[in-house]
Amino acid sequence: MARFEDEALYGGAAGGGKSDALLAEALRQVNIPHYRGIIFRKTYPECSGLIDRSLELYSLAYPDAKYNGNNHCWTFPSGAKIYFGSMQHRQDRLKYQGKRYDFIGFDELTHFTWDEYSYMFSRNRPGGEGTKCYIRATCNPGGIGHAWVKERFIAGKEPMRTYYETVNVNGKEYSKSRIFVPSTVFDNKILLEQDPNYVASLSMLPEQEKKALLYGDWNSFSGQVFTEFRDNPDGYDNRKYTHVIKPFKIPKEWKRYRSFDFGYSRPFSVGWWAVDFDGRAYRYRELYGSTGEPNVGLRWEPKKMAEKIREIEDKYDEGNMITGIADPAIWDSSRGIEGSIINLMESERLFFDKGNNSRIAGKMQVHYRLAFDENGYPMMYVFNTCKDFIRTIPALVYDELDIEDVNTQGEDHIYDDTRYFLMSDPIKPTQKGIVDSPIYNPLK
Length: 444
Description:
The chain is α/β, with parallel strands linked by helices. The protein has helices spanning 18-26, 44-61, 114-119, 146-154, 189-194, 198-203, 207-215, 302-316, 341-346, 359-370, 387-392, 413-423, and strands at 7-11, 36-41, 66-68, 73-75, 81-86, 103-107, 134-139, 163-169, 172-182, 244-245, 255-261, 269-275, 281-288, 322-326, 353-354, 380-383.
Protein backbone atom coordinates (compact mmCIF):
# COMPACT_ATOMS: atom_id res chain seq x y z
CA MET A 1 0.00 0.00 0.00
CA ALA A 2 3.06 2.25 0.21
CA ARG A 3 4.01 1.72 -3.43
CA PHE A 4 4.18 4.68 -5.83
CA GLU A 5 3.91 2.77 -9.15
CA ASP A 6 1.12 3.33 -11.66
CA GLU A 7 0.29 -0.39 -11.59
CA ALA A 8 0.90 -2.87 -8.80
CA LEU A 9 -0.06 -6.54 -8.56
CA TYR A 10 -0.31 -7.97 -5.06
CA GLY A 11 -0.53 -11.62 -4.16
CA GLY A 12 0.32 -14.85 -5.86
CA ALA A 13 -1.01 -17.21 -3.17
CA ALA A 14 -4.00 -17.63 -0.87
CA GLY A 15 -4.35 -16.03 2.54
CA GLY A 16 -2.26 -12.89 2.05
CA GLY A 17 -5.04 -10.44 2.91
CA LYS A 18 -5.36 -9.29 -0.70
CA SER A 19 -9.04 -8.31 -0.72
CA ASP A 20 -8.77 -6.32 2.51
CA ALA A 21 -5.76 -4.47 1.11
CA LEU A 22 -7.66 -3.59 -2.07
CA LEU A 23 -10.73 -2.36 -0.17
CA ALA A 24 -8.64 -0.26 2.18
CA GLU A 25 -6.54 1.21 -0.65
CA ALA A 26 -9.68 2.45 -2.38
CA LEU A 27 -10.39 4.65 0.69
CA ARG A 28 -7.15 6.61 0.42
CA GLN A 29 -8.63 9.67 -1.33
CA VAL A 30 -12.28 9.69 -0.19
CA ASN A 31 -11.77 13.05 1.54
CA ILE A 32 -11.67 14.67 -1.95
CA PRO A 33 -15.21 15.41 -3.20
CA HIS A 34 -14.60 14.59 -6.89
CA TYR A 35 -12.72 11.35 -6.18
CA ARG A 36 -14.10 8.25 -7.89
CA GLY A 37 -12.87 4.69 -7.34
CA ILE A 38 -14.02 1.32 -8.67
CA ILE A 39 -13.21 -2.27 -7.71
CA PHE A 40 -13.87 -5.06 -10.21
CA ARG A 41 -14.69 -8.73 -9.91
CA LYS A 42 -15.49 -10.80 -12.97
CA THR A 43 -19.20 -11.06 -12.11
CA TYR A 44 -21.49 -9.26 -9.67
CA PRO A 45 -22.21 -12.45 -7.67
CA GLU A 46 -18.45 -12.71 -7.11
CA CYS A 47 -18.53 -9.11 -5.83
CA SER A 48 -20.79 -10.12 -2.95
CA GLY A 49 -17.91 -11.15 -0.69
CA LEU A 50 -16.13 -7.84 -1.31
CA ILE A 51 -19.33 -5.86 -0.72
CA ASP A 52 -20.04 -7.72 2.54
CA ARG A 53 -16.52 -7.00 3.74
CA SER A 54 -16.81 -3.34 2.73
CA LEU A 55 -19.98 -3.06 4.85
CA GLU A 56 -17.84 -4.05 7.84
CA LEU A 57 -14.76 -1.94 7.08
CA TYR A 58 -16.21 1.20 5.50
CA SER A 59 -18.95 1.59 8.12
CA LEU A 60 -16.31 1.58 10.86
CA ALA A 61 -13.99 3.98 9.06
CA TYR A 62 -16.75 6.36 7.89
CA PRO A 63 -19.96 5.92 9.93
CA ASP A 64 -21.76 8.53 7.83
CA ALA A 65 -20.96 6.81 4.51
CA LYS A 66 -23.93 5.27 2.68
CA TYR A 67 -24.08 2.17 0.48
CA ASN A 68 -26.58 1.94 -2.40
CA GLY A 69 -27.18 -1.67 -3.38
CA ASN A 70 -28.94 -0.77 -6.62
CA ASN A 71 -25.91 0.86 -8.24
CA HIS A 72 -23.33 -0.94 -6.06
CA CYS A 73 -21.89 2.36 -4.85
CA TRP A 74 -20.56 3.83 -1.60
CA THR A 75 -21.00 7.60 -1.13
CA PHE A 76 -18.80 9.26 1.49
CA PRO A 77 -19.45 12.47 3.48
CA SER A 78 -17.24 14.51 1.12
CA GLY A 79 -19.24 13.35 -1.91
CA ALA A 80 -16.53 10.90 -3.07
CA LYS A 81 -17.73 7.57 -4.43
CA ILE A 82 -16.44 4.00 -4.64
CA TYR A 83 -18.19 1.60 -7.03
CA PHE A 84 -18.15 -2.17 -7.45
CA GLY A 85 -18.09 -3.28 -11.10
CA SER A 86 -18.01 -6.42 -13.23
CA MET A 87 -17.04 -7.56 -16.72
CA GLN A 88 -18.64 -10.96 -17.15
CA HIS A 89 -18.28 -10.73 -20.93
CA ARG A 90 -15.65 -9.02 -23.05
CA GLN A 91 -18.09 -6.47 -24.43
CA ASP A 92 -19.07 -5.45 -20.88
CA ARG A 93 -15.96 -3.29 -20.70
CA LEU A 94 -17.75 -0.83 -22.99
CA LYS A 95 -20.24 -0.14 -20.17
CA TYR A 96 -17.52 2.04 -18.68
CA GLN A 97 -16.96 4.10 -21.81
CA GLY A 98 -17.01 7.79 -20.94
CA LYS A 99 -16.53 7.12 -17.21
CA ARG A 100 -13.50 8.23 -15.22
CA TYR A 101 -11.95 6.76 -12.10
CA ASP A 102 -8.99 7.99 -10.06
CA PHE A 103 -8.51 4.55 -8.54
CA ILE A 104 -9.16 1.25 -10.34
CA GLY A 105 -8.84 -2.07 -8.54
CA PHE A 106 -9.10 -5.62 -9.91
CA ASP A 107 -9.71 -8.46 -7.48
CA GLU A 108 -8.55 -11.81 -8.95
CA LEU A 109 -6.97 -10.22 -12.02
CA THR A 110 -6.28 -13.62 -13.64
CA HIS A 111 -10.05 -13.99 -14.19
CA PHE A 112 -9.93 -11.08 -16.67
CA THR A 113 -8.63 -10.89 -20.23
CA TRP A 114 -5.99 -8.43 -21.34
CA ASP A 115 -8.64 -6.57 -23.38
CA GLU A 116 -10.74 -5.99 -20.28
CA TYR A 117 -7.83 -4.87 -18.10
CA SER A 118 -6.09 -2.65 -20.65
CA TYR A 119 -9.34 -0.94 -21.71
CA MET A 120 -9.60 0.57 -18.24
CA PHE A 121 -6.29 2.40 -18.75
CA SER A 122 -8.33 4.94 -20.73
CA ARG A 123 -10.76 5.33 -17.82
CA ASN A 124 -8.01 5.96 -15.25
CA ARG A 125 -8.10 9.76 -15.24
CA PRO A 126 -8.93 12.53 -12.75
CA GLY A 127 -12.15 14.50 -12.45
CA GLY A 128 -10.41 17.46 -10.84
CA GLU A 129 -7.26 18.59 -9.06
CA GLY A 130 -5.58 16.88 -6.17
CA THR A 131 -6.15 13.20 -6.87
CA LYS A 132 -3.65 10.55 -7.90
CA CYS A 133 -4.62 8.13 -10.67
CA TYR A 134 -3.36 4.57 -10.41
CA ILE A 135 -4.33 0.88 -10.71
CA ARG A 136 -4.02 -1.93 -8.18
CA ALA A 137 -4.77 -5.62 -8.62
CA THR A 138 -4.69 -8.86 -6.66
CA CYS A 139 -4.80 -12.50 -7.77
CA ASN A 140 -3.70 -16.08 -7.38
CA PRO A 141 -2.16 -18.15 -10.22
CA GLY A 142 -4.64 -19.72 -12.65
CA GLY A 143 -7.63 -18.53 -14.62
CA ILE A 144 -8.21 -17.33 -18.15
CA GLY A 145 -5.78 -14.42 -17.73
CA HIS A 146 -2.94 -16.42 -16.19
CA ALA A 147 -0.65 -16.13 -19.22
CA TRP A 148 -0.84 -12.38 -19.78
CA VAL A 149 -0.68 -11.55 -16.05
CA LYS A 150 2.38 -13.75 -15.67
CA GLU A 151 3.98 -12.16 -18.73
CA ARG A 152 3.25 -8.58 -17.61
CA PHE A 153 4.19 -8.84 -13.93
CA ILE A 154 6.03 -12.10 -13.18
CA ALA A 155 8.04 -13.74 -15.98
CA GLY A 156 11.65 -12.57 -16.15
CA LYS A 157 11.05 -9.92 -13.50
CA GLU A 158 12.19 -9.57 -9.90
CA PRO A 159 9.52 -9.16 -7.22
CA MET A 160 9.56 -5.77 -5.48
CA ARG A 161 11.46 -4.16 -8.35
CA THR A 162 9.98 -1.27 -10.36
CA TYR A 163 9.79 -1.68 -14.14
CA TYR A 164 9.11 1.16 -16.57
CA GLU A 165 7.40 1.10 -19.95
CA THR A 166 8.24 4.10 -22.13
CA VAL A 167 6.36 5.29 -25.21
CA ASN A 168 7.06 8.13 -27.62
CA VAL A 169 4.10 10.32 -28.63
CA ASN A 170 4.69 13.21 -31.04
CA GLY A 171 8.35 13.32 -30.14
CA LYS A 172 7.78 13.35 -26.38
CA GLU A 173 8.50 10.38 -24.12
CA TYR A 174 6.07 9.18 -21.49
CA SER A 175 6.62 6.34 -19.03
CA LYS A 176 4.46 4.19 -16.78
CA SER A 177 5.70 2.08 -13.89
CA ARG A 178 4.58 -1.27 -12.52
CA ILE A 179 5.62 -3.77 -9.84
CA PHE A 180 4.77 -7.20 -8.45
CA VAL A 181 4.45 -7.45 -4.66
CA PRO A 182 4.41 -11.14 -3.68
CA SER A 183 2.41 -12.48 -0.77
CA THR A 184 1.66 -15.84 0.84
CA VAL A 185 -0.32 -16.92 3.88
CA PHE A 186 2.92 -16.83 5.88
CA ASP A 187 2.88 -13.01 5.60
CA ASN A 188 -0.57 -12.83 7.22
CA LYS A 189 0.30 -13.12 10.91
CA ILE A 190 -3.23 -12.30 12.11
CA LEU A 191 -4.81 -15.05 10.01
CA LEU A 192 -2.28 -17.60 11.24
CA GLU A 193 -2.99 -16.59 14.85
CA GLN A 194 -6.75 -16.87 14.33
CA ASP A 195 -6.60 -20.12 12.33
CA PRO A 196 -3.26 -21.97 12.76
CA ASN A 197 -4.66 -24.90 10.75
CA TYR A 198 -5.24 -22.83 7.60
CA VAL A 199 -1.78 -23.78 6.33
CA ALA A 200 -2.68 -27.44 6.85
CA SER A 201 -5.88 -26.91 4.85
CA LEU A 202 -3.89 -25.50 1.92
CA SER A 203 -1.36 -28.34 2.23
CA MET A 204 -4.10 -30.93 1.75
CA LEU A 205 -5.23 -29.52 -1.61
CA PRO A 206 -4.45 -31.45 -4.82
CA GLU A 207 -0.81 -31.00 -5.84
CA GLN A 208 -1.40 -28.37 -8.55
CA GLU A 209 -3.61 -26.21 -6.33
CA LYS A 210 -1.29 -26.64 -3.34
CA LYS A 211 1.72 -25.35 -5.29
CA ALA A 212 -0.25 -22.36 -6.56
CA LEU A 213 -2.24 -21.35 -3.47
CA LEU A 214 0.25 -22.21 -0.71
CA TYR A 215 3.52 -21.26 -2.38
CA GLY A 216 2.43 -18.95 -5.20
CA ASP A 217 3.88 -21.19 -7.93
CA TRP A 218 3.01 -19.57 -11.28
CA ASN A 219 3.94 -22.73 -13.20
CA SER A 220 1.28 -24.80 -11.48
CA PHE A 221 -2.38 -23.93 -10.95
CA SER A 222 -5.88 -25.33 -10.77
CA GLY A 223 -7.63 -25.70 -14.12
CA GLN A 224 -4.39 -26.07 -16.08
CA VAL A 225 -4.96 -28.33 -19.09
CA PHE A 226 -1.50 -29.61 -19.96
CA THR A 227 -0.04 -30.35 -16.56
CA GLU A 228 2.43 -32.74 -18.24
CA PHE A 229 4.41 -29.91 -19.91
CA ARG A 230 7.96 -29.49 -18.61
CA ASP A 231 10.55 -26.88 -19.48
CA ASN A 232 13.49 -28.45 -17.67
CA PRO A 233 16.89 -26.94 -18.64
CA ASP A 234 18.67 -29.91 -17.00
CA GLY A 235 17.25 -32.08 -19.78
CA TYR A 236 18.01 -29.80 -22.73
CA ASP A 237 20.98 -31.93 -23.77
CA ASN A 238 19.89 -35.49 -22.93
CA ARG A 239 16.19 -34.73 -23.75
CA LYS A 240 14.91 -36.54 -20.66
CA TYR A 241 12.02 -35.24 -18.55
CA THR A 242 11.64 -32.12 -20.66
CA HIS A 243 9.69 -31.02 -23.72
CA VAL A 244 11.95 -28.06 -24.42
CA ILE A 245 15.35 -28.77 -25.97
CA LYS A 246 18.19 -26.94 -27.68
CA PRO A 247 17.95 -26.48 -31.48
CA PHE A 248 19.86 -28.89 -33.72
CA LYS A 249 20.17 -29.36 -37.46
CA ILE A 250 17.17 -31.30 -38.76
CA PRO A 251 18.26 -34.32 -40.88
CA LYS A 252 17.11 -33.98 -44.48
CA GLU A 253 15.62 -37.48 -44.37
CA TRP A 254 13.04 -36.53 -41.72
CA LYS A 255 9.56 -35.57 -42.87
CA ARG A 256 8.68 -31.90 -42.44
CA TYR A 257 5.33 -30.26 -41.85
CA ARG A 258 3.83 -26.78 -41.63
CA SER A 259 0.73 -26.19 -39.48
CA PHE A 260 -1.35 -23.04 -39.75
CA ASP A 261 -4.12 -21.43 -37.69
CA PHE A 262 -5.57 -18.30 -39.26
CA GLY A 263 -6.12 -15.10 -37.27
CA TYR A 264 -6.58 -11.42 -37.98
CA SER A 265 -7.62 -9.38 -34.93
CA ARG A 266 -6.37 -12.37 -32.93
CA PRO A 267 -2.90 -13.82 -33.65
CA PHE A 268 -2.31 -16.26 -36.49
CA SER A 269 0.09 -19.11 -35.84
CA VAL A 270 2.43 -21.11 -38.06
CA GLY A 271 4.45 -24.03 -36.74
CA TRP A 272 7.17 -25.96 -38.57
CA TRP A 273 7.59 -29.58 -37.48
CA ALA A 274 9.94 -32.46 -38.20
CA VAL A 275 9.24 -36.12 -37.45
CA ASP A 276 12.05 -38.61 -36.82
CA PHE A 277 12.05 -42.32 -37.76
CA ASP A 278 10.44 -43.22 -34.40
CA GLY A 279 7.48 -40.92 -35.07
CA ARG A 280 8.64 -38.34 -32.52
CA ALA A 281 7.68 -34.75 -33.43
CA TYR A 282 9.91 -31.66 -33.11
CA ARG A 283 8.58 -28.10 -33.39
CA TYR A 284 11.67 -26.41 -34.76
CA ARG A 285 10.34 -23.00 -35.81
CA GLU A 286 7.26 -20.83 -35.41
CA LEU A 287 5.77 -17.60 -36.73
CA TYR A 288 3.30 -16.00 -34.34
CA GLY A 289 1.26 -13.07 -35.62
CA SER A 290 1.00 -11.06 -32.43
CA THR A 291 1.66 -7.39 -31.73
CA GLY A 292 3.39 -8.37 -28.50
CA GLU A 293 0.28 -7.55 -26.50
CA PRO A 294 -1.48 -10.66 -25.15
CA ASN A 295 -3.83 -12.22 -27.69
CA VAL A 296 -3.76 -9.21 -30.06
CA GLY A 297 -3.22 -9.97 -33.76
CA LEU A 298 -1.15 -8.09 -36.31
CA ARG A 299 -4.19 -7.65 -38.61
CA TRP A 300 -2.18 -8.85 -41.61
CA GLU A 301 -4.05 -9.60 -44.79
CA PRO A 302 -3.77 -13.29 -45.82
CA LYS A 303 -1.56 -12.37 -48.78
CA LYS A 304 0.98 -10.75 -46.46
CA MET A 305 0.94 -13.85 -44.21
CA ALA A 306 1.54 -16.05 -47.25
CA GLU A 307 4.42 -13.88 -48.48
CA LYS A 308 6.11 -14.00 -45.06
CA ILE A 309 5.75 -17.79 -44.77
CA ARG A 310 7.09 -18.19 -48.31
CA GLU A 311 10.04 -15.90 -47.50
CA ILE A 312 10.95 -17.94 -44.41
CA GLU A 313 10.77 -21.28 -46.20
CA ASP A 314 12.78 -20.05 -49.19
CA LYS A 315 15.49 -18.88 -46.80
CA TYR A 316 15.65 -21.77 -44.34
CA ASP A 317 13.92 -24.80 -45.91
CA GLU A 318 15.04 -24.60 -49.52
CA GLY A 319 15.05 -28.03 -51.14
CA ASN A 320 12.95 -29.65 -48.41
CA MET A 321 9.47 -30.93 -49.11
CA ILE A 322 6.99 -29.57 -46.54
CA THR A 323 3.47 -30.91 -46.04
CA GLY A 324 0.99 -28.22 -44.97
CA ILE A 325 -1.95 -28.78 -42.60
CA ALA A 326 -4.29 -25.90 -41.85
CA ASP A 327 -7.36 -24.62 -40.10
CA PRO A 328 -10.35 -25.88 -42.18
CA ALA A 329 -11.86 -22.39 -41.97
CA ILE A 330 -9.40 -21.04 -44.56
CA TRP A 331 -11.34 -22.95 -47.27
CA ASP A 332 -14.44 -20.86 -46.44
CA SER A 333 -14.99 -18.22 -49.12
CA SER A 334 -17.66 -16.34 -47.14
CA ARG A 335 -15.33 -14.60 -44.67
CA GLY A 336 -15.42 -11.21 -46.39
CA ILE A 337 -12.17 -11.82 -48.28
CA GLU A 338 -11.96 -11.91 -52.05
CA GLY A 339 -11.81 -15.63 -52.67
CA SER A 340 -10.91 -18.11 -49.97
CA ILE A 341 -7.73 -17.75 -47.90
CA ILE A 342 -6.44 -21.05 -49.27
CA ASN A 343 -6.45 -19.57 -52.80
CA LEU A 344 -4.28 -16.68 -51.64
CA MET A 345 -1.91 -19.13 -49.96
CA GLU A 346 -1.64 -21.28 -53.06
CA SER A 347 -0.80 -18.19 -55.13
CA GLU A 348 2.43 -18.07 -53.07
CA ARG A 349 3.10 -21.80 -53.65
CA LEU A 350 1.89 -22.69 -50.15
CA PHE A 351 -0.26 -25.81 -50.20
CA PHE A 352 -2.24 -27.24 -47.31
CA ASP A 353 -4.41 -30.22 -46.47
CA LYS A 354 -7.49 -29.61 -44.36
CA GLY A 355 -6.79 -30.13 -40.69
CA ASN A 356 -8.99 -32.35 -38.54
CA ASN A 357 -10.74 -29.96 -36.16
CA SER A 358 -12.00 -32.59 -33.69
CA ARG A 359 -11.39 -30.69 -30.48
CA ILE A 360 -11.44 -33.42 -27.84
CA ALA A 361 -9.58 -35.97 -29.97
CA GLY A 362 -7.03 -33.27 -30.81
CA LYS A 363 -6.57 -32.37 -27.16
CA MET A 364 -5.97 -36.02 -26.31
CA GLN A 365 -3.31 -36.22 -29.03
CA VAL A 366 -1.46 -33.36 -27.30
CA HIS A 367 -1.71 -35.26 -24.00
CA TYR A 368 -0.43 -38.46 -25.62
CA ARG A 369 2.52 -36.65 -27.19
CA LEU A 370 3.47 -34.85 -23.98
CA ALA A 371 3.37 -38.01 -21.83
CA PHE A 372 6.79 -39.35 -20.80
CA ASP A 373 7.57 -43.02 -21.31
CA GLU A 374 9.17 -45.21 -18.67
CA ASN A 375 12.61 -43.85 -19.63
CA GLY A 376 11.61 -40.19 -19.43
CA TYR A 377 11.19 -39.44 -23.15
CA PRO A 378 8.08 -37.78 -24.63
CA MET A 379 6.78 -38.07 -28.18
CA MET A 380 6.97 -34.31 -28.81
CA TYR A 381 9.70 -31.72 -28.35
CA VAL A 382 9.88 -28.00 -28.98
CA PHE A 383 13.04 -25.98 -29.62
CA ASN A 384 13.71 -23.38 -26.93
CA THR A 385 13.55 -20.73 -29.66
CA CYS A 386 9.77 -21.28 -29.95
CA LYS A 387 9.04 -18.81 -27.16
CA ASP A 388 5.33 -18.37 -27.78
CA PHE A 389 4.63 -22.12 -27.69
CA ILE A 390 6.49 -22.32 -24.36
CA ARG A 391 4.56 -19.31 -23.05
CA THR A 392 1.01 -20.18 -24.11
CA ILE A 393 0.63 -23.98 -24.00
CA PRO A 394 1.16 -24.44 -20.23
CA ALA A 395 -1.13 -21.45 -19.51
CA LEU A 396 -4.23 -22.94 -21.19
CA VAL A 397 -7.18 -23.62 -18.87
CA TYR A 398 -10.36 -25.68 -19.12
CA ASP A 399 -13.64 -24.14 -20.23
CA GLU A 400 -16.05 -23.72 -17.29
CA LEU A 401 -19.03 -25.00 -19.32
CA ASP A 402 -17.43 -27.55 -21.65
CA ILE A 403 -15.19 -28.97 -18.95
CA GLU A 404 -13.40 -31.45 -21.24
CA ASP A 405 -12.25 -28.74 -23.66
CA VAL A 406 -9.79 -25.85 -23.64
CA ASN A 407 -11.21 -22.40 -22.95
CA THR A 408 -11.17 -20.71 -26.35
CA GLN A 409 -11.14 -17.23 -24.80
CA GLY A 410 -7.49 -17.79 -23.91
CA GLU A 411 -4.46 -17.57 -26.19
CA ASP A 412 -5.07 -20.92 -27.89
CA HIS A 413 -3.82 -20.25 -31.44
CA ILE A 414 -0.55 -22.20 -31.16
CA TYR A 415 -2.49 -24.98 -29.49
CA ASP A 416 -4.84 -25.06 -32.49
CA ASP A 417 -2.06 -25.26 -35.09
CA THR A 418 -0.49 -28.02 -32.98
CA ARG A 419 -3.78 -29.94 -32.91
CA TYR A 420 -4.11 -29.82 -36.68
CA PHE A 421 -0.60 -31.19 -37.10
CA LEU A 422 -0.93 -33.97 -34.51
CA MET A 423 -4.30 -35.12 -35.84
CA SER A 424 -2.69 -35.69 -39.26
CA ASP A 425 -0.76 -38.61 -37.74
CA PRO A 426 -2.45 -39.59 -34.45
CA ILE A 427 -0.72 -41.96 -32.03
CA LYS A 428 -2.02 -44.29 -29.36
CA PRO A 429 -1.49 -43.48 -25.68
CA THR A 430 2.06 -44.21 -24.56
CA GLN A 431 2.77 -45.92 -21.29
CA LYS A 432 2.89 -43.01 -18.88
CA GLY A 433 6.14 -42.97 -16.97
CA ILE A 434 7.48 -40.74 -14.22
CA VAL A 435 6.50 -37.13 -14.82
CA ASP A 436 9.34 -35.54 -12.87
CA SER A 437 12.92 -36.75 -12.90
CA PRO A 438 13.70 -39.11 -10.01
CA ILE A 439 15.15 -37.60 -6.85
CA TYR A 440 18.91 -38.17 -6.72
CA ASN A 441 19.89 -40.73 -4.07
CA PRO A 442 23.67 -40.74 -3.42
CA LEU A 443 23.41 -44.12 -1.63
CA LYS A 444 21.88 -45.90 -4.62
